[in-house]
Amino acid sequence: MVYKHLVAAGLGLAVVTGTGAAAFAVDLTITCRCVEGGVNSATAEWIKNSVIPGFEARMAEEGREISVSLTEFAGADEQLTQQLALDFSTGAGADISGFDGFLIPSFVDAGLLRSFEDLIGEPAISWEGWDHISEGIRSILSYDGGTYGIGLGTDVRMVFVRADLFEEAGLDAASWEPSSWDDLLEAARALKDAGVDAPLQLNAGVSMGEATTMQGYWMALLGTGEGVVDEEGRWIVESQGILDTLNLYKTIYVDEALGDDRAQLLADGRNRTFANFRDGRTAMLVEGDWFYRSVTAPGSEFALENRDEIMTWKKMPAREPGAGFRGQGHVSVSGGTGFVINPNTDSPQEAWEFLAFMMSQEQMTAFQDYQPGIRSRSDVPIPDSPFLNETSQALLPLTTARPNDADYNSVSMEIQRMTESVVSGELSPEEAMAQYKAAVTSIVGEENTVSLL
């Protein structure tokens, strides 16, 4: 780990291996938002039970003494981001860290990351894995010509549906295919009349962090035909699409009480929305495929009994047919997480070797046994999972991604504040958009913004 490039036996010298070769003993650490038996349990289990022992055994075969330990982080994504920013700025922290791709530009511009090309050099540049990772997936953890991490994979977003609650409301979830926001709202009203407390969940508010921006705001905004930036990369700060999106939030949470408004404002709100879905208080929830793969999986905190019998999914509809982004009738947005190397590590080459082993075909394929998913490597097949195969085939052609911009994280926080001010009833959609316009203009400069009204 950082500050722990150790020599053996306290002698200040090398270890003499059984082969007669000299090798320094190195301790590496890796951290991620993953806790065995808790959040992202499968990731923690994979790292502890497959990656680490496999790597240590391989190093031992080469006569090298390298040990690796996992530091499990149980806090929210935003808390881990704050911790990594502090660690990287002070020379502390684990050697390898889990990382969300959208943070790369802001960390790079702040001098808190070094590219693989700079930190590692040729071993990273010529790594065999790049031949099996598409440019699109690689770009998620790249910025301004440099590569800063390796992604685990990508995801897609959709509407998850409790088919059993639909049936109780006289609706057939199997044949229901929403083609507009009105279809979502009509179903929510019928479910409400049937006794479902908070039938529709569209993430909002500051507490949910990026989950508000991606699973909530983006999924609605794309349905208006807009993104957060225009084709020239300017931030859209005033538009009919923003107003339509905020009015959708107002309809759900303020005007008709079709969603759990308090869950959008509480510190543990996202977990409350998961519990609402599990406990039958919510019947439609807009989320990423991670919700199926991890949140509701057997053995998890929010596991849904008989999940595959009572839960299904639907494509997120545009405001009206054909009104969505790129003229689509349905929309999705994709992100990606992976792992980066601490720029202050005392053992950059060993850290790279571990990361490359972790992201090898062998280990990425092993990860599928712990948690099936859409992996970054094209030579790692999607397992025999009807859900993953159906959703990837249906939604990857419709998806888009967040802008690779250093200001994205700051703008995203303003999006969260904007939605919260509407859901709480503090501001009207027009007032909230005006505040958003002023805040984003202050962040990025007026020349980098555009009004579409």
TrEMBL record:
Residue stretches spanning the membrane: none
Protein known as: Solute-binding protein
Keywords, ordered alphabetically: Periplasm, Signal
One Gene Ontology cellular component: periplasmic space
Top-level division of the source organism's lineage: Bacteria
Subcellular location: Periplasm
Similarity field: Belongs to the bacterial solute-binding protein 1 family.
